[in-house]
């Protein structure tokens, strides 16, 4: 290790002196002018085309996602119309002619499409306030548990320090 350091020191010292002896001076490097390759332009066009296709697919996906959601206002209006129409329903009992097993299979098939989701507005300040209260409560409960453990640890350390 010492030998390596000495060699590095001699190398630096003598190389600098030898360059001075021959009157060597550093010149600015001359960089060749860069020519634009045709390949890079083709890649950029390909990326733009790919980005365009991805954007179109995302738009289509978002349109398809919205089709599966049910507007609760429309659902409420339909329910209200049905309640008012109940008074005009027939007096006799309707009997189903569908097999129960077939009905059960159909319900299982369409069940994922029947889920109702309510979208929340992430910009709504009430949601953020509720989240802050939940986080505060979580911190307070964790602090109570941790404080007891830390107090016990402090007492044990104080006892061992006195010994």
Automatic annotation (TrEMBL):
GO cellular component annotations of the record = cilium; Golgi apparatus; intraciliary transport particle B; microtubule organizing center
Q: Which domain of life is it from?
A: Eukaryota
A matching Pfam family: IFT57
Report the record's Gene Ontology biological process terms. intraciliary transport; non-motile cilium assembly
UniProt keyword terms in alphabetical order: Cell projection, Cilium
The family database entries (InterPro entries) matched by this protein are listed as: Intra-flagellar_transport_57
Which locations, inside or outside the cell, does it occupy? Answer: Cell projection, Cilium
- Tell me, in one coarse class, where this protein mainly resides: other
Q: Which residues, if any, are the signal sequence?
A: none
Its family remark reads: Belongs to the IFT57 family.
**What is the name of this protein?**
Intraflagellar transport protein 57 homolog
